[in-house]
Amino acid sequence: MSLLSACASSGGDGQSKAKAGKKTAKNPLGVNDTAKMEFVLFDGGFGKEYAQDAVKIYQKDFPKAQVKFSATQKIQSTLQPRFNEGNPPDLIDNSGAEQMDMGVLVGKNQLSDLTPLLDAPSYDDPSKKVRDTLRPGIVEMGQFDGNPVWIMYYAYTVYGVWYSQKALDSLDAEYPKTWDEMLQVCAKAKKKGMAGWTYAGKYPYYIPFSLYPMIGKVGGVDVLNAIDNLEPNAWKHPAVKACFEAYYELFKKGYILKGTPGLDHIQSQTAWAKGEALFIPNGSWVENESANVIPADFNLAVSAPSGIDSSDKMPFGTIWASGGEPFIVPSKAANPEGGMEQLRIMLSEASSKNFTSKVKSLSAYNGGTDGIELTPGLKSGVAALKLAGTNVVNPRLQDWYVQLQKEKIGVGALGEMMAGRLTPAEAIKKIQGYADEAAKDTTIKHYKHQ
């Protein structure tokens, strides 16, 4: 997760492009079979084995090509200079704390449009285009304005409230559907010496993983769209007020694990896995990232957020699910066809199954779970998606305005509110101010729901 945003610029003379290869049924993107292909992966919660396995398939398909694969946690400091010099790699997993700002990269024309990949035949079935094999929302997420698709999100993340079913059972409780029920469950937990909630206090932009879909559930998807569009007074909607006040009650009633504001994501997840807190807002990567601390009998589960009451605009089960792990092909890559072909391989059923079984996450490929024994968290995520049906929301602030979402809304306001240093009214006023500043800032590109 990023606290930094990129200062992309488009200097440098660039590198010479590899001559395109011949398009055939087996090589629909026309990859030059002797051209070097370079792939840089973010070395994070998903590890690198799934990508290395896909690279082996590329090497088998193009035995004369030299492939350079590397993994780093420092995406921006490693690659920004190469963008500036005009010699970026062919494929990048632009993720992690040093993620380069997507809005900036798109705004400065530094990415290739991935439409040729999406319109190419899928790796498994030539009668199906790649785009027809993807989960709902993946293509749209990669768009910013109009038709070009700049990003291929490879993982499919279910965001929500994560918990131990075993712990919930021990309280003789069910997952709460309304906020009154949530407070009752937290009171039960407190009596047993367990906090109701914890979260990544040092990175409070994790809080929106359950707070934003709750706002959508309470006020409808239009409220979230208005927030994404940086519309005046979007944050002053009654649904935002109701949800902020609900979360603030967790602080006021002492239901948040003591010391949470000082914990990072790993420390808060560890405390939660040890049973010190019942609920944590997170994404589905948490199962892999915390695998070494989650007990064998934990019975990991995820739920869509609780609502306020029966007046909510959307039903219980409304969840935030969307693409994660953004892959990009730079416009100045020497071998962009090679970068796209590597993605085409990764979007095959076999590579998708390999990813899911190795990293406990769904991929963008719509399927790929048949015959795999799903882990508890993954099974729960699939069930949550089934319950949601079409009630899936996808707030875009974290893609469109990284700094606004993470540093300002997250650290500057939500973190302060949850630590009791701001009231909900003060936090809303502050966030609306940040959003208005971003809307007026002519140095950043602005995006809108089409």
UniProtKB/TrEMBL annotation:
UniProt entry keywords in alphabetical sequence: Signal, Transport
Entry keyword Transport: yes
Major subcellular location class: other
Region span, Disordered: 1-28
Keyword Cytoplasm: no
Protein location: Cell envelope
InterPro entries in the record: Bact_solute-bd_prot1 (IPR050490), Chitin_NgcE (IPR022386), SBP (IPR006059)
Domain of life: Bacteria
Family named by the database record: Belongs to the bacterial solute-binding protein 1 family.
NCBIfam families attached to this UniProt entry: chitin_NgcE (TIGR03851)
Protein name from the UniProt record: N-acetylglucosamine/diacetylchitobiose ABC transporter substrate-binding protein
Species the sequence originates in: Streptomyces graminearus
Upper lineage: Bacteria, Bacillati, Actinomycetota, Actinomycetes, Kitasatosporales
